[in-house]
Amino acid sequence: MATFDALSRIQTPIQLTEDELAVFAGRLKGELIRPGDPDYDQARSVWNGMIDRRPALIARCAGVDDVVEAVRFARARDMLVAVRGGGHNVAGTGTVDGGLVIDLSPMKRVEVDPVQRTARAEGGVTWGELDRETQVFGLATPGGVVTDTGIAGLTLGGGLGWLRRKYGLSCDNLLSVEMVTADGSVVRASEDENADLFWAVRGGGGNFGVVTTFEYRLHPVGPEVMQAIVLYPLEIALPALRFFREQMAQAPDELSSFAILQHVPAVEPYPEAWHHKPAVIFLACHCGPLDEGERVIRPLREFADPIIDLSGPMPYVEVQKLFDEDYPRGWRYYWKSTYMDSLSDPVIERLIAHTEAMPSHHSTLDIWHMGGAVARPATEMAFRGRSAPFHLGIEANWENPTDDEANIAWAREVYRDMQQFSDGVEYLNFPGFLEDRERVVRQTFGDAYDRLARVKAQYDPDNFFRLNANILPAG
Ligand code: FAD
Predict the structure, then answer these.
(1) Disulfide check for 231: which of 171, 307, 336, 425 has CB 3.0–4.6 Å away?
(2) Can you give the pLDDT at residue 1?
(3) Does residue 210 have its Cβ closer than 6 Å to ligand 1?
């Protein structure tokens, strides 16, 4: 089985002359970083400490023209290219051994139009940076649940967060994109312009070009929302998850929730007696009126005697930071995902058994409640994975390289076991190491794959952008 790691290694390193590098560097407004430069090690690192690749060049792009220059430079030399937004992809698709990284992290401009309720954000913006600007006006677009994740990779792959059941996925709220395609052209795509490309980028990932600007629809959110955070002992996880299933069957769309199986963090404010003990956590965000939210989350808080209940009204920007400290940059991560056709008793029993077998105190099994607006997209687009009522995030998170094997094996075993409750569709933003990539991508896109392949053939016939959940160009 070809792993992404193998695919992202260059067999024959490209020889670059000092002259051509000087010309390239001179054409960039941003920096060109090379091995040996003082900030090379920092610039080549991505969020997942498992990923240790050594690019030949890192082009820190300061604007669209830099992206065009970088694409043309790599094209002319047949260099393997990785595109980086926030650098958070767990498979490390934002970097490459021996190739060129097109790094958009300096591209941070955000413009909010509070009257039209839209925001334009450049490809290097993170969710925390976008939320900060939109919340000034009491607005937001659905994003992810950790602030330093890039808007780019997350949106192009779908985008699941705290507003999903009310306002849909991040990609559902895209109004347009500006992109640099594989031949170095700058194109715009929206419902009215290059509509096929716009259909494809909403779920089809980084296959079609480098998105330099995302334009989003905004919605009134907060500034305070009602948040449930309640921990119960794992011993009562079976009745607790049955209760969660029943409650969610009648939940309003304003409520987006998880049930998470994990160990209690060994930090304040969690009671010391419970540190590192397994638990089930109800986490839910109600984005409607606070009093209504208080009423809706109350049953989750009153189910049994909790280990701790941290629920209450919270600024939306604080809710967005809730998980930040759980995912330090440089730790080791291996994440898979699968959609689940129900939260039946056999599903719950398997998940409890897998929790008891977790080799790391930092790992989690995340049961995302779907439905609501996720299941009702306003327009047609490439993203697949809307029909399941629950999505399972399988997160192996650990600190030491000596524990790699045990943690990866655990996550793979959970994934394998849970396939009996799944249709095989994966959320491609949690792709493991993109093992068995072609089969998984085809299975996930199903009947949309052929159309994606035709759009790929039109905009990237040579598969220049291939370090991703790759669509092979038709023909
Ligand atoms: P990068 O590694 O920079 O990019 C990933 C890939 O996206 C690139 O290889 C490329 O193919 C493509 N890409 C990036 N930028 C561009 C661009 N400008 N133009 C074209 N293609 C581009 N997902 C959710 O849905 N919800 C969550 O709540 C969530 N939380 C997360 C929390 C953490 C801590 C982490 C690590 C990930 C989380 N994810 C979540 C998964 C996340 O959606 C993916 O990891 C996503 O790939 C991250 O995007 P990025 O821009 O940061 O990544």
Answers:
(1) 307
(2) 43
(3) yes
